[in-house]
């Protein structure tokens, strides 16, 4: 009776070929896998915080007439890149859409920031400045006011929005409200970027 040949070597060769083919396919797939594209437009970030970070208490607002303002009113550092061509100045607004039980709160309005400026240092927005013009926040103050949410609320979102404009840094008068600023910027904007920080106490 004729003895049947062993299939061992053939199976080993087949397994080796399959392994090589699988490795090649994996390498090809990895080679064509798309990577996250680099941002091409205006970006806004904070050197000290990631987007959607929780703020510590010292960044909360400080206001004697509001018991919900429990911090030191320290503004976070901000930085921006990829400025649109033709930008002459920047404006910034800081809004809490959940503030005032959903009516919204503007915590800061600023503009007249020269195009040559690439950011603001920590605490810089909390004081008078030669770099930008303070507008009026919801409380009517020409100043920066940090988060002041009611105690016990879920973390609220504080949105910094940077707007690149065609306007010269000295084109607008001081003391504009957010609404007045947006009206003045009609047809004068070149791009925008936003950044979110959260706070609760």
Question: What does this molecule look like?
Answer:
- Helix content is 16%, strand content 26%.
- The protein has 201 residues and is an alpha+beta fold.
- The chain has a 6-stranded mixed β-sheet, with no helix packed on it. It has a 3-stranded antiparallel β-sheet with strand order 1-3-6, with no helix packed on it.
- The chain has 2 helices and 9 strands, in the order αββββββββαβ.
- The mean pLDDT is 88.
- A hairpin with an 8-residue loop joins strand 4 and strand 5 (105-114).
Summarize the structure.
With 201 residues, this protein is of the alpha+beta class. The protein has helices at residues 8-32, 178-184, and strands spanning 43-45, 53-54, 78-81, 89-96, 105-114, 119-120, 133-134, 156-165, 189-199.
Write a concise keyword list for the protein shown above.
201 residues; alpha+beta; six-stranded mixed beta sheet; three-stranded antiparallel beta sheet; 2 helices; 9 strands; 16% helix
């Amino acid at each position: 009776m004729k003895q049947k040949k062993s299939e061992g070597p053939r199976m080993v060769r087949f397994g080796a070929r399959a392994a090589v083919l699988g490795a090649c396919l994996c390498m090809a797939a990895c080679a064509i896998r798309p990577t996250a594209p680099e941002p091409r437009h205006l970006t806004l970030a904070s050197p000290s915080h990631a987007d959607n970070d929780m703020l510590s208490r010292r960044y909360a607002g400080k206001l004697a007439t509001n018991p919900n303002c429990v911090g030191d009113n320290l503004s976070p550092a901000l930085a921006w890149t990829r400025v649109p061509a033709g930008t002459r100045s920047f404006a910034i607004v800081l809004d809490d859409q959940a503030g005032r039980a959903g009516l919204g709160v503007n915590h800061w309005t600023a503009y007249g920031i020269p195009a040559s400026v690439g950011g603001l240092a920590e605490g810089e927005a909390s004081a008078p400045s030669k770099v930008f013009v303070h507008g009026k926040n919801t409380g009517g103050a020409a100043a920066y006011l940090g988060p002041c949410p009611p105690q016990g609320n879920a973390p609220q979102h504080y949105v910094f929005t940077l707007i690149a404009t065609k306007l010269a840094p000295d084109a607008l008068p001081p003391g504009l409200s957010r609404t007045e600023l947006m009206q003045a910027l009609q047809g004068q904007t070149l791009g925008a970027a936003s950044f979110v920080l959260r706070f609760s106490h």
